[in-house]
Write a structure and sequence with these properties.
The protein has one domain. The protein has six helices and two strands; from the N terminus they run ββαααααα. A two-stranded antiparallel ribbon has the order 1-2. Strand 1 and strand 2 form a beta hairpin. The radius of gyration is 18 Å and the shape is elongated. It starts with a strand and ends in a 6-residue tail after the last helix.
């Protein structure tokens, strides 16, 4: 059940729950990030959104994902939103523990968290998935290669900032 609080003007507004804040941050991040990635791929290489989504799926399915159909693109979309949810829940948990994540200016916290997510993906998640994939596809693990500067900017603007904005809407219990 949502509670209400009174603002300085006397108007009543509904208080956002932690779940709603996570949902807001997650969906904003997921939509903005995949949209930015699709735009970047189209501008730089003329690639369609389905190609981008199959590229996401290739983290688990290997190169075969790139020539698969729309089902593989749907798997890539599900994987993308799973990663966005994970990043959002992690920020939520840390923001409950560290007040600075709730009180520092959003224009600082959001982009910085985007850098953290960028580094975690580039230096942790993608290499780990390459190693995992090597176990069941019998392929050698390979370093996925560095993400580019545009991807860092995308993470700062379209990942960290919407997550921080959405999560900061929830009051601290």
């Amino acid at each position: 059940m949502a509670s209400a609080e009174t603002s300085g003007t006397g108007a009543r507004r509904r208080r956002v729950t932690g779940r709603e804040a996570i949902l807001t941050g997650w969906l904003c991040c997921g939509v903005l990030d995949i949209t930015a990635a699709c735009l970047q791929a189209w501008i730089q290489a003329g690639r369609a959104p389905a190609d981008v989504l199959r590229g996401v799926a290739s983290a688990l399915w290997g190169r075969a994902a790139m020539t698969a159909g729309s089902g593989m693109a749907a798997i890539g979309l599900a994987m993308h939103f799973t990663v966005a949810l994970t990043a959002t829940v992690i920020f939520y948990a840390f923001s409950r523990r560290f007040a600075g994540l709730r009180t520092a200016p959003l224009w600082i916290v959001g982009p910085l968290y985007g850098v953290v997510v960028f580094c975690a993906m580039n230096y942790g998640t993608l290499p780990a998935l390459s190693w995992l994939r090597s176990l069941y596809l019998d392929t050698p693990p390979r370093w996925p290669g560095p993400m580019s500067w545009p991807q860092l900017a995308i993470h700062m603007i379209a990942v960290g900032s919407p997550i921080a904005w959405g999560v900061r809407r929830a009051p601290v219990a």
